Amino acid sequence: MEGTRIVPKIDVITLHAVKNYGSVLQTFATQEKLRQLGCEVEVIDYWRADNLDENLLSLHANNHSFPLNIIARPILYPTVKRWETVFNGFLDRRISLTHKRYLSNDELLEDLPVADAYCTGSDQTWNSTLNGGILPAYYLDFVPNDKPKFSYAASIGNTSVDDSEASYLADKLSRYDMISVREQSAVDLLASLGIKAQRVLDPTLAMGKEFWSDFADEKLVGEEGYVLLYRLHPDRVIDGFASEFARSRGLKLRRVCLRYDQVREGGSPVFIPEVEELVGLIKGASMVITDSFHVTAFSTMLERNFAVYCRGNFNTRIDNLLGICGLRDRWLSVESRDRLLLEDVVYDGVAEKLAAARCDTDKFLKKAVSLTGVGGR
């Protein structure tokens, strides 16, 4: 029809099916950022075998040796069912998925979802450790050579790879028209392989404070001030600091429990809240204590007082974020704990630094969308 604007269609492949908050939030943010730029967006419903609902209970129970794996099943069952309710429900409500679910790269090759361009990311799509090896679909192996391909805030998760993986990366990523990654370490690693990449913001950060403030559901916040503890890994340092901080400020300690067995670990438990409710809890907290990248990102965007615990592995992305914001003094360690009990975050200039990084991210995405040769803003 004359006068109708043609809208570019972008198909995204990412880690949307992983049962955690960061995975679904970055998927949603990627979708919304591309929509903001005038695109029709579809997330390819590609699932790793370990993400399938029918495999979750067995896989997590089998992390324990016999006979603990038998005992673990009834303990894990309510957790797994709650994961399915919260995270599958979020995908159903918020994400535009392909009509077909794909379980392999071969299935994608046989029945390619139609789009003007294809995007990898964001999140740890290129982290072969977390993905249980190299998965060709995340490198757009199924996309024909003549179709535009780009990555958005993809993460490798490691600062080095072995020779075999380096060769694979150099081969597959050379087919991309544009590449952006989340960490400077990934820019440097890919440069050593002859691949040019640009560092951009994680999509959750690219959407900004106002967007997430509107998204947040604050019905769990209540009137009493609280410290919010959200940790991915058990550690006495982070637990002890959270309890001491709450006592020193006269605040309630609220713990986000990612498994049912964690509700007995101290503090007031919040068992696997809805995704919007988690963002609401961060927004309403007097202090957030975490070892999670995405909880750190939301704490920063929503300008909450926070401390982030350094747990050794995969801290590159958190350190990059804190570096962009000038907030590396928020790392929690044995050495810094006494200082962090007294010093709150100073947000002078942080919003401006994030806005500048957001502008660079938008420029990258606008150029990537223009590869389609249709529409966009």
Quickly list its features:
six-stranded parallel sheet; disordered N terminus; 2 domains; alpha/beta; 42% helix; single chain; Rossmann fold; 14 helices; 377 residues
What is the structure about, briefly put?
This protein is an alpha/beta fold and 377 residues long. It has 14 helices and 13 strands.
Can you name the CATH architecture of the largest domain? 3-Layer(aba) Sandwich
CATH class of the largest domain: Alpha Beta
Instruction: Give the CA-based shape.
Output: globular
Per DSSP, the total helix count is 14
**Nearest-integer average pLDDT:** 91
Distance between the termini: 20 Å
Radius of gyration: 21 Å
Query: What pattern of helices and strands is seen along the backbone?
Result: EHEHHEHEEHEHEHHEHEEHEHEHEHH
Helix content bin: 40-55%
> Would you tell me which CATH topology of the largest domain applies?
Rossmann fold
Low-confidence stretches: 1-5, 64-68
| Count of individual domains | 2
Question: What's the count of strands?
Answer: 13
Strand order in the largest sheet: 10-9-8-11-12-13
The fraction of residues assigned to DSSP E strands is 5-15%
Q: Which structural class best describes the helix and strand composition?
A: alpha/beta
* Largest beta-sheet details: 6 strands, parallel
